[in-house]
Each structure stands twice: as C-alpha cells, then as structure tokens.
Write a structure and sequence with these properties.
Structural class of chain B: alpha+beta
Number of helices of chain B: 4
Strand content of chain A: under 5%
Number of strands of chain B: 6
Distance between the termini of chain B: 31 Å
Oligomer: heterodimer
Strand order of the largest sheet of chain B: 1-2
Number of strands of chain A: 0
Radius of gyration of chain B: 34 Å
Strand content of chain B: 5-15%
Radius of gyration of chain A: 17 Å
Largest sheet of chain A: none
Mean pLDDT of chain A: 84
Structural class of chain A: mainly alpha
Distance between the termini of chain A: 41 Å
Largest interface: A-B, 69 and 51 residues
Shape of chain A: globular
Shape of chain B: elongated
Largest sheet of chain B: 2 strands, antiparallel
Mean pLDDT of chain B: 58
Order of helices and strands of chain A: HHHHHHH
Helix content of chain A: over 70%
Amino acid sequence: MGIRADRAEPRADGDFDALYRDHRDRLRRTAYLMIGQAAVAEEVVHDAFIRVHNRWDSIDTPAAYLRRTVVNLCLAWRQRDVMARERMPRPPADVEMPEIDETWGLLTRLSQDQRVAVVLRFYEDLPMDEIARVMGCRTATVRTRIHRALAILRKEMTP
Amino acid sequence: VTDAPTPDEVEARIRRALSTRSGDIASGDGAPWEPGRPRPGIVPFAPSDSPRRNPSWRTLVAAVAALAVPVAGGAVLLSNDGEPTTPPATPTCAPLDTTTTVPDTDPPTTVPPWTSDAPSSTITVPADSATPITTAPPTSAAEPDADLVTPTTDSWIDPPTTTGGVNPGAGATTSTEPCDPDPDAEH
C-alpha cells in the first residue's frame, strides 16, 4: 500500500470501474458495521472512491488504499459523532433475533478503535498484521484491542 | 463454573451479528446481498478531471469595466444588482483628434462590448468616422477566473502521512493524529 509518483504508465479507467464494482458493496457493509448508519457509510465509501480516483495513477495497490481510506474516514466520523450520539435519544431497538440484537448493541458500545478492529477481524477476516496496516498501528495494538473487546463482550453477553 | 459464554461462542456470536447486520445494506440494485449471485451492473461515479466553474458576476463586471471604462471615460455605472449600465446619451469617448467628428444629430449605434456579437477589441463608431476606436483587450477577459480563488482539492485530498507511511482518508479528521497511536494499548 502506498503512493508512488513515478508510475510509468497511467492505469486505465476501466480498472477503476472494476475496483468500484468489486469493492463498493463490501465496503459499504464494512463501513456500516463500523459506523452503524447506512447513509453515513454510503457517503464514506463514495468519499473514499473519489479520493482513490484523484490519486488513481499514483497508487500502487488501490484496493488496500481504498480500504484504509474507508477505515480512516470511519474513525474520523466516529470521533466527530461521539458528542452527537451522547446527546441524541436512542433509536428504537431493532427487531432481530435476541442474540443478534444483544451482540449488535454491545458492539456499538465498544470504543471506535475496538469496534473497527473487531469488524476487520471477524467480518473482513483480515489477519492481525493486515489490520494493523489498515489502522496504522502495531500488530500488538490490534491484538490488545480485539482481546479487550472480546473480554468486554464476553462479560456482558448472556450465556 | 461460570455462566459466561466461551471465547469461541463469543466469536461465533460476533460473526453472526456482523453477518446479519451487514444485510441491512442492500446491494447496488437494491436487492439483498447474495455472495453467489452475479454482481449487479453499477454505473460508477466518475468525477470530471477539471470541473469548470462559471465566472462570478465580479469577474464579468471586471471584464466589462475593463472594456467600457476607456471608451466611456469612466461613465459606466453599476446598477444595484451589479448589472452594468451605460447612460443613454451619446458616448463621450470622442477622440480628441480634431479630424474625427462625431455628429450630434445621429448618435452612433454602439454595440455593447459585452454582447456576443460585438468584437472583443473594437468599438463601432459612426460610419462617417474613419478612425475606429480600438481598445486593448482586457486582461481580465484573458483570464476569466483571475480573481477567483479556486480551492484546490489537494488540501483535503492529500492524506497526512504517519510515521509508518501514507494514511489515506485521515485528512478528514480534525485531529492531528489521523490514526490513533494506541490509546488503549497495554504496554
């Protein structure tokens, strides 16, 4: 993952179309699981695609760059949203299976870093080192976040 | 003996919850997501490379003023809404050259310089006048957006780099630390 300024040949626009088709839906879901709001997730993913498009000829691995951009935008959005969430009334509980509702509710109460790490690990099935690259931190930090998140969830979950 | 679920059970519940709730987001065509089915045709968003901006009214007024002021001797007026107006009287731009006369009884038909039919650098004078009044092309017309401060998108596109390398997307945050350096790490 990274940007290089000396790419010999510009990448074809068709590759961007393929990237969009292949990753858009998956990233929308990932962003939704990190944020919890579908509309915001949609906006974040499109914002990430625009950023990738603007750097299209200088990005080595667009898919990885795209995913990292989405994760960073989700983290940034949640930082701004913390205050709003604390002051807004809680939405009515979704009607799902009780276990799903309970687990989803517990996931929303994790810290943003823990939640992002959990989503990348258990939804995207990324290895620890890849999660560390995406989140821009060390692998040990990712392990710690996931370990703490699992401990919190295990403690709060009903048997 | 504890009532808490085992770590494997916790992990399985998380996977089930994430998989189930991901179904809240429909595919591009609005249908539920089914991994095995072909992806729907999606028209990707393609931002233009160089978005054009219409010149502001200030630019237009500046261009008109650059043309009209030398001709009308500064008689160009601006109405309240910014539209340039000229007094109905005969233009006061008669050249000082005594060989060229402007008849008082037959005011010339002057094409406003901002209309598309008018030549950009020549103002029509009466037919009996042998000397057309030419003005230098306005500099603002050559650079229609010269007075515009066009924001460059690089300022928010460029992701700040972390010590580990590129950190795309982190530019949107107000924090100076785009990716948090282990706020809850155990060390």
